[in-house]
Amino acid sequence: MKNLVIVFCLCCVQLFYVQAQSSFSIKNQDQTANPVSLELFGSFYELGFGRSDLLWGELLFNRDFELERPLGEKNPWLVYSREKKEKEDWWHSGYEETKWYIESQHKRGYAIPIVHNNYWPSAHGKYYVQVDNRAEKQSVWFAQNRIYLRKGQTYNFSGLFSNTIFFSADKLGKEVVLNLCLFEGDELSTCLSKKEIKVCTNQFGRIETELESMEYEGWGTFAMEIPAGTKVAFDFLSLTAADDVKGWKKEAVEKIKQNLKPKTIRFPGGCFASLYDWRDGVGPREERPVNYDSWWECEFVNDVGTLEFVELCELLEAKPFFCVPVMFNDAFNAAEWVDFCNNPRNERRIAYGRKEPLHVKYWELENEPYRRFDAITFANRCVEFSKQMKKVDPTIKIAVGNYWCYNKKFKEMLEILGPHIDLITNRGGSVEEMHNDLLILDEYNKKHGTDILLCHTEFRAPLSRTDGDVDGLNQVQTADPETLFNRSVRWEYAMNMAEQYILFQKMGGDFFTANFTNLTDGWGESLINIAKEKSYLSASGVTYSLLNSLDIVYPQVIKPIKEDKDVVIQAAWNQNRSKLTVVLLNFNEKENVCQLDLKDIRKRFLSEGDLFLLNPGSSHCFNTVSNPERVKVEMRKIKINKKMIVKLFPMSLQVVEIMVSDK
After folding, report:
1. Are 282 and 303 in contact (CB under 8 A)?
2. Looking at residue 555, what is its pLDDT?
């Protein structure tokens, strides 16, 4: 078991010699022709979707004062089932949309003085704030609350400021002095940290400074004091913790690296990828444009781009898996992106401070191309893209989708695509459909000497094990009042995810990766939740962490002796066949008993093994900020015999690790 955070229980699981409700014989025979892919457990980081940027270190909301739409407005994908979104099961403080306000003489106003610049003068984006404090003595405060402050933490501040002259041949002009403060709680009374800045630029210029650490931990307010008789304009404010790692929140990055360890991460979408221009996400952040026309109709400031995402992957030891716009851009754009990433001599990347190439190996062509192309037109377009991209770097791997309405044309698409691609992604297809894809790929590979693999680049677990309640994209089709997102946070969903990964493992190395949707904060569809107070794994995240830590290399043939449709089993050897790992899923709402017959395995085992148990007690439970370990892993010891009776707890997942004896 590799670096898995668990709760240790000293008790030993006893074997109950009672009539088993299910019984399985584990054969010492490989089920797959080749070992399970080392890259199987992937994830997905979609920009502009939900609040996926919560992993990014920024603490201020709407810091460039665009006309932000409320969360989910005009987005048909995000729906609510409760009277307030704050009561949704997936909700936490990271989703808050805290408003800026002006406070003067202890009175607050939320109609802040936003100016539409018409690009004349130009700050960052279309809007900036201008405050003209004409009072003779009284200061004005510009503030945002609900910021979680940490004890001993230093904070970095930056922003674009002007003394409002705007039009001048001279850079410097009249000096304006402002005070930056961090206050305890929601009131501007107890100042915890204070720093003076001086604004003396006629045009918008960048100012950065530090707010020193404090002995306080808890909710706080960032505020900027604008003295009496002062006029100032500002834009693109930023407040981040000084211990962020390359701009990413340290605690969250460490938890992902230690627990989740995704092998590949898809970026920047999803739907967002179709309209994404990679050039918008490179260079100094204050020079990056604000995008107003994303798929989700929300303004996007491009804090995170190619370099930042690859640096995150490097921190997590994951491989980036880029999604390239095909519907609304051309092959030359894609090739230039490859060049920026992988050409050792790319001048633009080097100029932006990264001399070493990014080594981005995996590239998916488009997200949902059937929105614009028929299957054959798309296949031919992908050939054009692949040729241009591989001309820049022949070592990259190209993935193309064959899912949904395209699947019936898969053979025809493959005849066109085959010489130019490396991966086929079937998103939303059933496991049966994927097995048929593998048969088609096997036939093609043998005939042409290729090695095209299958994968799933936007893996969403079923909401239910029964057919008929969801479509291929997991849109709920029944009268169940709960939404996809509320159901996705729950233990039942995590159990369904585990069953799917077992099915992917049984495809062997012909199945490359399944990028779970999402890595973080996709309105409940996430492995880790990043609230303002703390980061914690979701029920799916805890399950993913356990499964990804197992040494599953060679799945073994399992013969059901007494089958129970609600009991799912996987048994597999590690690389050197010194450890047998048995995974047991019990979808029964009642306690169950399972017999494991190991007599066909002609090896001696140690008399005691490790058992890892996920048994939260209810299919509807989930982790929250207040109870982040409602779903957790417990470790116990279990006695090993050639015929084992294992108690299966209701709606539980357990893993038995059996070591081969050297004697």
Report:
1. no
2. 98
- Packing angle, helices 410-417 and 375-392, rounded to 10: 30
Cβ atoms 190, 179 nearer than 8 A = no
Q: Could you tell me the two tokens for 565?
A: 């449709």
Distance CA 399, CA 340 (A): 19
Question: Which residues of the chain fall below pLDDT 50?
Answer: 5, 7-17, 468-470
> At a CB cut-off of 8 Å and minimum separation 6, what does 17 contact?
645
| Domains identified in the chain and CATH numbers | 7-32+553-659 (2.60.40.1180), 41-93+244-548 (3.20.20.80), 98-241 (2.60.120.260)
In this structure, which amino acid lies at residue 287?
A: E
Q: Would you tell me how many other CB atoms lie within 10 Å of the CB of residue 431?
A: 14
Gap between the Cα atoms of 308 and 288, Å rounded: 13
Tell me how far apart the alpha carbons of residues 298 and 312 are, in angstroms, rounded to a whole number: 24
Strand order in the sheet with 579-586: 7-13, 634-639, 608-614, 652-659, 579-586, 567-573, 554-562, 22-30, 592-597, 643-648
561 SS3 class: strand
H-helix or E-strand spanning residue 410? helix 410-417
Task: List Cβ neighbours of 420 (8 Å cut-off, separation of 6 or more).
Answer: 382, 383, 386, 387, 390, 398
Residue 401, C-beta contacts closer than 8 angstroms, at least 6 positions apart: 364, 365, 366, 368, 369, 424, 425, 426, 427, 457
* Distance of alpha carbon 281 from alpha carbon 307, whole angstroms: 8
What does the alpha-carbon distance between residue 448 and residue 245 come to, in Å, rounded to a whole number? 46
Q: Are 238 and 60 in contact (CB under 8 A)?
A: yes
Q: What is the DSSP string of 156-202?
A: EEEEEEE-S----S-SEEEEEEEEEEEEETTSSSSEEEEEEEEEEES
DSSP β-bridge partners for residue 560? 24
Provide the pLDDT for residue 17.
46
CB neighbour burial string for 502-519, b if at least 16 within 10 angstroms, e if fewer: bbbbbbbbbbbbbbbbbb
* Other beta carbons within 10 Å of 420: 17
pLDDT at 71: 72
Model pLDDT, residue 466: 75
Q: What is the pTM of this model?
A: 0.95
The string of pLDDT tens digits covering residues 328-369 is 999 999 999 999 999 999 999 999 999 999 999 999 999 999
Query: Three-state SS across 253-319?
Result: HHHHHHHHCCCEEEECCCHHHHHCCHHHHCCCHHHCCCECCCCCCCCECCCCCHHHHHHHHHHHCCE
By the 10 Å C-beta count (0-12 exposed, 13-18 middle, 19+ buried), 284 is classed as: exposed
